Design the sequence.
């Protein structure tokens, strides 16, 4: 049993900033002078209105989104978006481009096919076990949209730059890297992110949708599967995931006010990732699995000389208060997820531990 908090490298649900957890604890029994907790007040109240509107305003400021963009909070996780996207934007006879960079991309593609619609896989990195992000991709100018996964949580790769789709709306699953860096949102028709990696607890998916995409939504869909239902009601067509939206609001406030914005957040994340990658590159014991130009800032995947050593590493790390270092069950190996809330001190502690473990077992 742990007496205090550990360094948390979980892939998701994942670490949240300590100050956010403390603020939640502090205001939990009596939220904003209401005499009730955030989980007990009406989503139609002024209290909750202020929470959701502040979360939206902060998202827009952090990502520099203009009034064309709507910020929504939906349920069903990122996985629900895999099916909602083709339902809303892909008409019969049309085709959408998909880039397959790993498990989550493949799941998104599968949901198009289940609906009997056409997903054109324009590039894939499957030939080398998804260790890289494809380049020079032949996107189709007549595609309904082009879908990518900006960060591949399981394989440890990330798009360094976004592709030019020549006016075709870009759609990205940013579940594991939203708010880790600044980027130009202009080419994106839709961005979605399950909150539980980088911006909050599970149970909420942030969706950023551009106005022109809303015009494509067919009337024939069930209300709960239409983006327009949620955009026209400020995400409150039905009861939203109130607690999750509140936690996201606090995390975004932390990014904006405590860290100082996305440029600062990105600089910290680059320093964290550089520290780990350059240590791994200097060692013959640890071997990164992603190509250098495709390495993720958020999920650092690596192998040790044997599976037995990997098992011992994960075990010993936890004994040293370093948790969550086991790779995804589908790929094995080790993975340090170093989302926004995992600070430089955790990285330095991890590198020190890795050095000691190598000395004892190398
Ligand atoms: C975790 C993850 C998902 C799945 O998210 P759910 O909210 O569990 O549906 C999808 N895409 C990526 C990139 C992820 O990291």
Sequence:
């Amino acid at each position: 049993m742990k007496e205090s908090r550990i360094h948390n490298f979980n892939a998701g649900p994942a670490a949240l900033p300590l100050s956010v957890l403390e603020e939640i604890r502090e205001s939990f029994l009596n939220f904003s002078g209401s005499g009730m907790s955030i989980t007990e007040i009406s989503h139609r109240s002024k209290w909750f209105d202020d929470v959701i509107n502040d979360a939206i305003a902060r998202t827009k400021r952090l990502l520099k989104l203009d009034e064309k963009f709507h910020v929504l909070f939906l349920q069903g996780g990122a996985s629900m978006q895999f099916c909602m996207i083709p339902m809303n934007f892909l008409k019969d006879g049309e085709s959408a481009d998909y880039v397959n960079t790993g498990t989550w991309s493949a799941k998104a593609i599968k949901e198009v096919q289940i609906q009997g619609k056409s997903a054109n896989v324009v590039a894939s990195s499957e030939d080398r076990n998804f260790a890289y992000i494809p380049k020079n991709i032949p996107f189709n100018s007549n595609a309904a949209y082009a879908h990518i996964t900006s960060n591949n949580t399981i394989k440890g790769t990330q798009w360094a730059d976004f592709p030019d789709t020549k006016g075709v709306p870009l759609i990205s699953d940013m579940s594991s890297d939203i708010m880790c860096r600044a980027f130009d949102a202009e080419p994106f028709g839709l961005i979605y992110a399950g909150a539980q990696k980088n911006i909050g607890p599970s149970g909420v998916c942030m969706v950023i949708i551009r106005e022109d995409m809303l015009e494509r939504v067919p009337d024939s869909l069930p209300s709960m599967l239409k983006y327009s239902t949620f955009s026209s009601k400020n995400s409150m067509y039905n009861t939203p995931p109130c607690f999750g939206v509140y936690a996201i609001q606090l995390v975004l406030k932390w990014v904006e006010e405590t860290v100082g914005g996305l440029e600062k957040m990105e600089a910290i994340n680059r320093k964290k990732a550089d520290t780990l990658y350059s240590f791994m590159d200097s060692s013959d014991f640890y071997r990164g699995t992603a190509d250098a130009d495709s390495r993720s800032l958020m999920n650092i995947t690596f192998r040790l000389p044997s599976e037995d050593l990997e098992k011992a590493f994960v075990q010993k790390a936890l004994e040293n208060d370093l948790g969550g270092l086991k790779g995804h069950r589908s790929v094995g190996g080790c993975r340090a997820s170093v989302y926004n809330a995992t600070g430089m001190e955790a990285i330095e502690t991890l590198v020190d531990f890795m050095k000691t473990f190598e000395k004892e077992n190398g």
